[in-house]
Design goal:
FAD/NAD(P)-binding domain, Enolase-like, domain 1, 3 domains, 10 helices
């Protein structure tokens, strides 16, 4: 085994890994730096896989965090197509599937997440598709053709974004959802109704309150979805979007504290010395909320690596940013920031008309805004974030008044 002094190692192949490498070099790590990724691709960004790249608007080259030459110019070693099998934190080394041992002084786990698999009979049929990697997006794009019958299981963000892409390609689309509305748990009834109407207006058939019994096939390929209530939905392909699970097995096996992802403090330090975590896999303590949060969205993978890198370098840094995510579906663009859960807010105040899909929504707990969302209203996420961060008491009438600039609401 090679001996490397002051070697920093990153396990992961997504945005968090690429951002962490850049942050480490920017903030002065001049020692060896290695990225271990189980895909053959250098680190890339995943949101376009369900948006611009899936729609054919974004090129493949636009997905990558850095050009290939960047890694050479910054002396970052890429071990691609290599799976990290185990971490020995006492000896400070990572073992790969091929038996190669990679020592580290500091280790960042940016292993991301994987789609939750459908477990009903027939789930292994051909043309049952998931979306997480570049190849997945390419397969979906090939399947989304004019006249094709596409069934989407799950009406979360991935489910709705893929449904929109399929519909824009001219496919006949049916979305199956176990609750009463798409995004009901994430947004609550008032805002969820906006997305239900959006997809209905674009010709998507939404089937709420349904449960899948099995997938039916012919000659090894999926031909339909059998529902528990007896209905059968014909399908040329089935897209499964029923959530994701954190890729935390390597951390679990190494003895790290793992509970809904890899548990870290606000500095992104795990329960084991010299080991850090960032991105989808990190269940990080958030001082504002006084609890751990694992946020499965692009913004964490973009911003957490800066804090992880500083912490790895011995600097005092904490991750304090509000959660943020966005979506693009048809002609609707949405940004959301803040954090709340069902039962943790009293009401939603709307600024603008939901019917026109051009509005801002504020989730209220008492007189305080805990989360905000803009729909087809641009350049407002910063003042929304400021309103939340100030924690000032807000009047519903003033929040809803379009004549009062958002900046004037911040005290």
């Amino acid at each position: 085994m090679r001996k490397i002094v002051n070697s920093f190692v990153i396990i992961g192949g997504g945005l968090a890994a690429g951002q962490a490498a850049e942050a480490l070099r920017t903030h002065g790590h001049n020692g060896p730096l290695t990225i271990i990724g189980d895909e053959p691709e250098r680190p890339y960004v995943r949101p376009p896989l369900s948006k611009g790249y899936l729609l054919g608007k974004d090129t493949r080259d636009s997905l990558f965090v850095h050009p290939e030459r960047w890694y050479q110019e910054h002396n970052v070693e890429l071990l691609l197509g290599k799976r990290a099998r185990s971490v020995d934190w006492r000896a400070r080394r990572v073992e790969l599937d091929d038996g190669v041992q990679v020592p580290y002084a500091k280790l960042l786990l940016a292993t991301g997440s994987s789609p939750r698999l459908l477990t009903v009979p027939g789930a292994d049929l051909a043309n049952v598709l998931y979306l997480r990697r570049i190849g997945d997006s390419k397969r979906l794009r090939s399947a989304f053709k004019a006249g094709a019958k596409v069934v989407v299981i799950g009406a979360g963000w991935i489910g709705l974004e893929t449904a929109a892409a399929a519909r824009m390609a001219g496919a006949e689309v049916t979305v199956l959802e176990h609750s009463g509305l798409p995004l009901l748990k994430a947004l609550g009834r008032e805002a969820a109704e906006v997305f239900a109407a959006l997809h209905a207006d674009h010709g998507v058939e939404l089937l709420p309150n349904v449960e899948v019994a099995s997938l039916t096939g012919a000659q090894g390929r999926v031909v339909g979805v059998q529902l528990v209530d007896g209905r059968h939905i014909s399908a040329d392909c089935v897209v499964v979007g029923i959530g994701i699970t954190p890729n935390d097995q390597i951390a679990r096996n190494a003895g790290l504290d793992v509970r809904n992802g890899i548990v870290t403090d606000e500095h992104l330090q795990t329960s084991i010395p010299h080991v850090y975590a960032a991105g989808d896999v990190a269940n990080a303590y958030h001082p504002r909320y006084g609890r751990h949060l694992r946020v499965e969205h692009w913004a964490n993978a973009l911003h957490q690596p800066e804090i992880a890198a500083l912490s790895m370098l011995g600097r005092d840094a904490a991750y304090l940013r509000l959660p943020y995510f966005y979506t693009d579906q048809y002609d609707l663009g949405m940004e959301y920031t803040g954090y709340t859960e069902p039962g943790a807010y009293d009401r939603v105040v709307f600024r603008g008309e939901r019917s026109t899909r051009e509005f801002i929504a504020f989730w209220m707990a008492g007189k305080r805004v805990v989360a905000g969302m803009s729909v087809n209203v641009w350049d407002v996420i910063d003042p929304i974030r400021a309103i939340i961060e100030t924690g000032s008491e807000m009047d519903d009438t003033r929040l809803a008044d379009l004549m009062i600039p958002l900046d004037q609401l911040i005290s």
